[in-house]
């Protein structure tokens, strides 16, 4: 049984620059003194992991990190809400997959607050059989836990799952899970994925005709 697993940010919605703005402002408010490009290099995994990578494990308590992250996410949602829409071609792609009986899940390092922000406002819940968020895993990508939990939730074998991702760490997680991947080039360039042999295709959006091969 073929199954599709979608990352969220940068894969379903083109919002990564808004996350970058949010983290750039928040981290420098906290004294990180980082450039935008330096911040970009840290934008993977859970929010708490990002903060610990930059400030060390002793700077903030877990409740403090959760409060900082929530403040950043509120600012992100306020900024991105007027622009909230699916990446081009994705509405039709989701309908086609649903009509074909292909089970779909979301496997994301985003927290439930941000995932619900997207699914609620774009009325997408009915398309997805399961959602695995940051709160549901112990270890973030490139650990394969998130994608393996997605597969288990729909009783699919990893080899039958195709992961849609925009980040090298996500593609690496798919590789570690024994899954192939389609890369959305919304945030990273092709050469950043040179190390990964599990990539089926690179696409700018879901209008690319190559994606029709997934329904063959």
UniProtKB/TrEMBL annotation:
Organism: Chitinophaga flava
Signal sequence coordinates: none
Pfam families recorded: HAD_2 (PF13419)
GO molecular function: catalytic activity; metal ion binding
Superkingdom as given in the UniProt entry: Bacteria
Protein name, entry field: Haloacid dehalogenase
UniProt keywords, alphabetically: Carbohydrate metabolism, Magnesium, Metal-binding
Cofactors that this protein relies on: Mg(2+)
Homology family: Belongs to the HAD-like hydrolase superfamily. CbbY/CbbZ/Gph/YieH family.
């Amino acid at each position: 049984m073929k199954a599709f697993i979608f990352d969220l940010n940068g894969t379903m919605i083109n919002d990564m620059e808004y996350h970058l703005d949010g983290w750039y402002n928040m981290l420098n408010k906290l004294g990180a003194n980082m450039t935008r490009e330096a911040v970009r290099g840290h934008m993977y995994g859970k929010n708490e992991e990002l903060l610990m990578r930059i400030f060390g494990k002793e700077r903030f308590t877990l409740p403090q990190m959760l409060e900082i992250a929530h403040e950043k996410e509120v600012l992100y949602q306020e900024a991105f809400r007027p622009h909230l829409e699916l990446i081009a071609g994705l509405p039709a792609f989701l309908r086609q997959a649903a009509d074909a009986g292909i089970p779909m899940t979301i496997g994301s390092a985003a927290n439930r607050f941000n995932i619900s922000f997207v699914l609620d406002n774009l009325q997408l819940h009915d398309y997805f059989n399961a959602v695995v968020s940051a709160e549901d895993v112990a270890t973030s990508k490139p650990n394969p836990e998130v994608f393996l939990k997605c597969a288990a939730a729909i009783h699919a074998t990893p080899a039958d799952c195709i992961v849609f991702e925009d980040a090298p760490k996500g593609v690496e997680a798919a590789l570690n899970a024994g899954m192939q991947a389609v890369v959305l080039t919304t945030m990273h360039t092709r050469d950043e994925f040179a190390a990964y042999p599990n990539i089926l295709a690179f696409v700018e959006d879901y209008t690319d005709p190559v994606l029709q091969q997934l329904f063959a």
